[in-house]
Structures are given as C-alpha cells and as structure tokens.
Amino acid sequence: MPRSAPSPAVILLSGGLDSATALAVARARGHACHALTFDYGQRHRHELTAARSIAAHQNVASHLIERLDLRLFGGSALTADIPVPKDRDDAAIAHGIPITYVPARNLIFLSLAAAFAEVIGAQDLYIGVNAVDYSGYPDCRPEFIKSFERTARLATRAGVEGAALTVHTPLMHLSKPDIIRLGISLGVDYSRTHSCYDPDPSGAPCGHCDSCLIRSRGFRDAGLPDPARR
C-alpha cells in the first residue's frame, strides 16, 4: 500500500528562536511545513533574513514572505520612531504591556495564516507563542489562541464544512531554557535565528532590549552558549 502524503501545516515563522522551534516541532510531527513570514515594517528587519535561512535549513515545503506595512498605524517601538526599552530588570519585563507590543499583530498574522491554510487544505497552524518567558503581550496568551481558533472555525468555509483549523502552540507552557533544549533535540540551528528588537545596521544584537535579555537568560539557564551572539 502506498504511503500517504504528509499533511500540510502552516507555520508562522518570524525568524526568532521560538518560531524556529515551533517549525521544528511541526516537522517532527510529520507535517509538510509551509512557512509564512511577514515583512510588516519592523525595526528589526534582520529577522527576515533569519527566517529565510531557517526555512531553507529546515527544508520547508514552501516559504512565503508577505509584505504588510504596519508602520501605517505605528503605536509600537517596532513600527514607529519610539525608543526600544533597554536594560529593564526581570520585574519590569514581567509587568504590564511594553511599548514593543505591536497592536493586534498576532490577530492579523493568524487571520492571514488561516486564509493561507484554507487555500492549501491545511487543518494545522503552528505559532511559537509563549506564556511563561515573554514580555506581557496579550496576543500570546492561551485565552486569545483558543478564542481565535473558535473564530476561525466560524469564519471560514473549511471550518463550516467540517475541516476545522487547529492552532498549535507547542511552546505555550515551556520556559525559555526548555524551549532551547527542545529545539536542540530537534536539530534547530539557533545561530540562524534573530531575536533583537534594535540591532545595529549589520544585524548584530544590541544585548540590552527585552528580547535580547530574555534570550540571553534562556541560554544561560539552559547551560548553553548562544551561537548567534556576535
């Protein structure tokens, strides 16, 4: 009997550590992975280069980079002329919603990813959100993901006709060290990833923004060097 083709899945791939790990999880589960990256006018555009490198290294079935300029709205240090916070302590990082939050970003990204999934016949969508080591973004919480999944089932032809979309969040309840250990076990090359919110023109990380600090602590607590540090 011929082997069945692997089921397709859409993976939101930013170019960061978490999305690279989520992609590796989807591959390990046997999916044909279709990566979707957004060029949304972000300050840290070097993550787009990282996403291309990760997609190639993990041998995805396809990789789309969609232009969506959220600078039109601004409202975030990642899409407007607003300073990126630096050298905040753990308590400050864990408190409140930071200015690096991009309004409705994951809501927008997931909506477009759901449309892509419907077109290619995928019932699985992966996103690397995390509710443990994160910067307080409301669109990374389990409640939001569950709500979006219900909405997608109501708002798409696939959902109405019984081919409902499942949004997978394999990293949701993992600490950053555990995410890194998981990725290493799945062969993720973290030297290809980019996390910094405010890199210099060469792409070198600042080492002081929230994302850099969370990443640095994650590798340290995992007992591993960060291969992307320059």
Polypeptide structure, described:
The chain is of the alpha/beta class and 230 residues long. It has one domain (8-222): Rossmann fold, CATH 3.40.50. The protein has eight helices and five strands; from the N terminus they run βαβαβααβααβαα. Strands 3-2-1-4-5 form a five-stranded parallel beta sheet, with helices on both faces. β1, α1 and β2 form a beta-alpha-beta unit. The model has no long low-confidence stretch (mean pLDDT 94).
Give the SSE layout.
Elements: E1 8-12, H1 17-28, E2 32-39, H2 46-57, E3 62-67, H3 90-94, H4 105-120, E4 124-126, H5 142-155, H6 157-160, E5 166-168, H7 176-185, H8 210-222
Parallel strand pairs: 1-2, 1-4, 2-3, 4-5
Helix pairs in contact: 1-7, 7-8
Shape call: globular
Q: Any idea of the CATH class?
A: Alpha Beta
Output the strand order for the largest sheet: 3-2-1-4-5
Give the uncertain stretches in residue-range form.
Answer: none
Estimated share of beta-strand residues: 5-15%
Structural class, please? alpha/beta
What is the quaternary state of this protein? single chain
Query: For the residues shown, what is the average pLDDT?
Result: 94
Can you summarize the main beta sheet? Answer: 5 strands, parallel
Q: In percent, how helical is the residue content?
A: 25-40%
The Cα radius of gyration reads: 17 Å
CATH topology: Rossmann fold
How many separate structural domains? 1
Distance between the termini: 51 Å
By DSSP, the count of extended strands is: 5
Per CATH, the superfamily is: HUPs
Q: Strand-and-helix sequence, N→C?
A: EHEHEHHEHHEHH
The second-level CATH architecture is 3-Layer(aba) Sandwich
| Number of helical stretches of at least 4 residues | 8
